[in-house]
Amino acid sequence: MAKDKILNLWQLPSEWDLVTDVANFYSLYNLFIQGRDDGRFALLVSRILPLVQNYTDMVIGGELRHVVSKCGKDPILVESLSTLRQTLRNDAWVKWWAIRKQYGLEALELAVKAFKKGKNNLGGPRWATITRVLLAMLRGEISKTMFLDTCFCMQHNGGQYFSKLSGWYGWKVRPVLDLNLAGDMEGVLRYASRDVREFVQGAGGV
């Protein structure tokens, strides 16, 4: 299946200015916790959450193809998961979409078990963590805000978490994360969109 059709299946854009929206997220969150964001932070979260959630789900399926033999012994679900084995990443993304639609959270639970048994270069603890974070958000165990914050900061075995879609320019996010970690909100704001910069500056957020 063509890449654009796969992304349409997962309701994902081929291009997204991730760096700007990560900067918007932390800039507006700084006002949100002070009660001075005028509802803008919630609107941002509602827009970007489906992108991060669906991306996370999709890439889990792509990685799972390497460790699917370690998924356990549930005969029906494992038979479906076995179709991921020895497939290309794009094909795995399509097959995983169908598996998730059919089996829901149970498929993610088996994925965690499989990743935990994988090696650091295939599956492994980082992918187990990624999958557990998605599960926790879907179960309501962590907030949507915590989910986004965690995903923005995660890494998989090959590096920056959002590297699977080149049009998202995930490798450019690191400077924003470092500035936020250092508490340099003026630096973070420089990466934000113009409307967010003007709003935050007008609200005295930095």
What is the total tally of β strands?
A: 2
Number of spatially distinct domains: 1
Q: What about the largest sheet?
A: 2 strands, antiparallel
Note the beta-strand portion: under 5%
**How widely separated are the two ends?**
47 Å
**Would you list the SSEs in sequence order as H and E?**
HHHHHHHHEEHHH
* Helix content range: 55-70%
Average pLDDT, all residues:
88
Class of secondary structure makeup: mainly alpha
Model regions low in confidence, pLDDT < 50 over at least 5 residues: none
Strand order of the largest sheet: 1-2
Shape: elongated
**Spatial extent as radius of gyration:** 18 Å
Q: Helix segment count? A: 11
Overview of the molecule:
With 206 residues, this protein is mostly helical. It has one domain (3-8, 17-202). The chain has eleven helices and two strands; from the N terminus they run ααααααααββααα. It has a two-stranded antiparallel ribbon with strand order 1-2. Helix 2 crosses helix 3 and helix 3 (40-64) crosses helix 5. The N and C termini lie far apart (47 Å). The relative contact order is 0.17. The mean pLDDT is 88.
Helix/strand layout:
Blueprint: H1 3-9, H2 18-32, H3 40-64, H4 75-81, H5 89-103, H6 105-116, H7 124-138, H8 144-153, E1 155-156, E2 159-160, H9 174-181, H10 185-189, H11 194-202
Helix pairs in contact: 2-3, 3-5, 3-7, 3-8, 6-7, 7-8
